[in-house]
Amino acid sequence: MRAYLVRRLALIVPTFIGISLISFFVIQLAPGSPIYFKFLAGQGLMASDAETEQIIEETKQLYGLDKPIWEQYIRWLWRMIRLDFGNSYKDQRPVREKIFETVPITLQLNIISILIIYLISVPLGVYSATHHRTLSDNILTFILFVLYSLPTFWTAMLLILYLGGGEYLDWFPVAGLN
């Protein structure tokens, strides 16, 4: 058991490095450049081509995008470890601050959904175990397998539409949690 735990703990570092490399390169492969988006969002200021290129080069230097890719990765990884996500290109607020604003609502929604899942699944599991191989157990198992195979985003959209959309059943609000 000890050897197993040591092996699993030793795999944490390469797994973390692999995930971080994949994340970094997926970000790099995204179309467009944040510099160009930031420049285009500059309240429609007109500049000559030379001024535009100078602004772009200064911004690349500011964000370290003129450095080699391996150096960009090291800087990015160090900032991620320190939870320094930089500033939003949209409103120049720290991204970390924006993330922490949404954590309470996210936790609230997750706790409520876990409670609902347990309140539904435990009684269904007990019923299925006590009525093993009956017609009702087979029907219940079939329905649950079908529901389990549906994509969650699609199921969520249907639930929003039918239970909170206003056109059918208006049981739950779809916006304005707090």
Explain what this protein looks like in three dimensions:
With 178 residues, this protein is an all-alpha fold. It folds into two domains: 2-82, no CATH class; 99-164. It is built from eight helices and no strands. Helix 6 packs antiparallel against helix 7. The longest helix is centred in the middle third of the chain and has 36 residues, at 95-130. The protein is extended. The mean pLDDT is 88.
Number of strands: 0
The major sheet is characterized as: none
Instruction: Give the averaged pLDDT, no decimals.
Output: 88
* Overall number of domains: 2
Q: What is the N-to-C order of secondary-structure elements (H for helix, E for strand)? A: HHHHHHHH
Discrete helix count: 8
Notable features of this structure?
single chain; 178 residues; mainly alpha; extended
What layout of secondary structure does this protein have?
Elements (H helix, E strand, L loop, with lengths): L1 H9 L1 H18 L4 H7 L8 H15 L5 H13 L13 H36 L4 H15 L2 H13 L14
Helix pairs in contact: 6-7
